Amino acid sequence: MEAVAVAVALGFLLLAAAGDEAREAAAVRALLTRLLGPGPAAAFSVSVERALAAESGLDTYRLSGGGAGARVQVLGSTGVAAAAGLHRYLRDFCGCHVAWSGSQLRLPQPLPAVPEVLTEATPNRYRYYQNVCTQSYSFVWWDWARWEREIDWMALNGINLALAWSGQEAIWQRVYLALGLTQSEIDEYFTGPAFLAWGRMGNLHTWDGPLPRSWHLKQLYLQHRILDRMRSFGMIPVLPAFAGHVPKAITRVFPQVNVTQLGSWGHFNCSYSCSFLLAPEDRLFTIVGSRFLWELTKEFGTDHIYGADTFNEMQPPSSEPSYLAAATAAVYQAMIAVDPEATWLLQGWLFQHQPDFWGPAQVGAVLRAVPRGRLLVLDLFAESQPVYIRTASFQGQPFIWCMLHNFGGNHGLFGALEAVNRGPAAARLFPNSTMVGTGMAPEGIGQNEVVYALMAELGWRKDPVADLGAWVTSFAARRYGVSHKDAEAAWRLLLRSVYNCSGEACSGHNRSPLVRRPSLQMVTTVWYNRSDVFEAWGLLLTAAPALASSPAFRYDLVDVTRQAAQELISLYYEEVRTTYRNKELVPLLRAGGMLAYELLPALDKVLASDSHFLLGSWLEQAHEAAVSEAEAHFYEQNSRYQLTLWGPEGNILDYANKQLAGLVANYYTPRWRLFMEMLVESLAQGIPFQQHQFDKNAFQLEQAFVLSTQRYPSQPQGDTVDLAKKFFLKYYPRWVAGSCDRLTTPGSCSPQTPTPGRFLGPGAGQASQKVPRPG
């Protein structure tokens, strides 16, 4: 009888496994149809078989077939593996490209044959995606259609572990009501939608809230669809868990509760920060944590991995290892009280962000408080400041090597591709390494797509890319659908400059004078030779007649023109500062006028030619998430605050800066004009420049922008190539004239510095040469 029972149980398990395989294969086939259309999709055969993986947990795909009359065979050990194999075929055999800004999917006919059966296995268990902040900086207003495209992108790039944190406030609302809090107390606690990431990590409460009832309903609906789709591919969604933070109102309901009020965060006062943290020994800790997880898993099911961050950018109330161990254990115990199989996904940012506090004893207390293997640590900023090296591979706890790359969702060409390329392999070779995966953890997406293409590919590679120059050349050809020597040369220049940051100083946070509140103390130094950016700009314009039909090329042309404008603003700002300090009024007027009245408006026009660079598109997403005019206005104000003041008083001013048409015209430009007016007034009257007074006046402009209801176009205007060419002809000669003694190192300029004619033909730029150089 016992043998029969075992056989029956095994039979059910095999049926379940077969059902999962069939579901995952169907999900990949549906993705293929969405991507290529029904006709082209029919040329592929997709199947999923767990047995393909030689080693359990290491996703594997196999490609074969193709050629005249033959279907391409895509086999994966999971749905994610099959999708990654499909992407590999489209990329390497068909020259296709899948990207946020638009995909290039021109298939050769017939489909190329796979010469030999190609089998590839990932070197590690996980390919992780997202940052808690991504939920606010990029995903906040998304509907299901946009989420569907993102999950397809994730599957094609082999992502099998990702946060799924939508809808959790609706669950918390149920928990708090059950505990005895009133609806008004709950409403007062939640932040507005654009700031939920920091409410979830305990950094903020209340700011720019409350959440409308419709928000909770829509997010619950979205979370169900997100989870269903992720699971259909065989991805593992990471659900949230209780980290210990509670509303202040908990002390009304439970007067004897043991709580500690943490310090302030992000220059916010305690009206919006200074979270209340339950003491780990208080019985309420387990009650709240387990009740939340029970409600959450009842609503959404579970895949047994949960994220929680108790001390994200907040100093714990005690550095005693015993306290830190108890606080950590309490979070874990609340998880396993509901789910005995729970694994805790911890962002390792706290160890990197406050290294003076997190010494060996403190780090060890956290890492040892959870059974080995049940804490999965994200080494979040490993491309620049890896933590695994100074913690002996997180003292035996498994970790994921992550590339953070971007802060605040900023625009700006940036990358540390050499460090990214070599980092994962080095981490695997580290003595007694416990690395179990790679990850992409940007605060914001939709920028620097080359960086993410490389990182996604590295998730399937055991070794670094041997020749990044050759790799980026191929990337350009796939991106535009055709090989073009000038475009490829432009990308190699970008690789050696903006994408070649190295050392701990590298940060994907744009601090250009363009997007900062002006002062006379701004830093303009960069890690690269700016002439490479201008050379790449010219080369892209040279390629424009051949490549202008490519949406990705037009996007890149806007992006590189935007970067060139950013460099020019540094040039003119230095002229402004120098002429002011030298008390030269006329040159000050000339340089400042060029910056604030010509260059910035011209940049706004270029940005307006592409839908990805429109303030109107960003705000329209917020409007479409609303169910009433009042709600639309509230959501729009959330968006404007996040992009600019990031708090009622400019608390984290311009952290989430973006270069969008409309934002440049009506936020950055008025601020620069005010700065110039006050500098000129200072010089004309012979009185020192009053930075404090300027800051007060600038805040009035900034706040007026946030509170404004002005609508902005959500459709592009003008021709990108024409606008970029005019911009180049006007400003490139000024770069040539001003660069050698202003922005580059001595001796780096050549007497043969190229003229516009080199890129755009004889006679190019003749009219623009009549305009005098700045200063």
Automatic annotation (TrEMBL):
Residues 26-113 form the Alpha-N-acetylglucosaminidase N-terminal domain. Residues 471-729 form the Alpha-N-acetylglucosaminidase C-terminal domain. Residues 1-18 form the signal peptide. Pfam families: NAGLU, NAGLU_C, NAGLU_N. The keyword Methyltransferase does not apply. InterPro entries: GH (IPR017853), Hex-like_dom2 (IPR029018), NAGLU (IPR007781), NAGLU_C (IPR024732), NAGLU_N (IPR024240), NAGLU_tim-barrel (IPR024733). This is Alpha-N-acetylglucosaminidase.
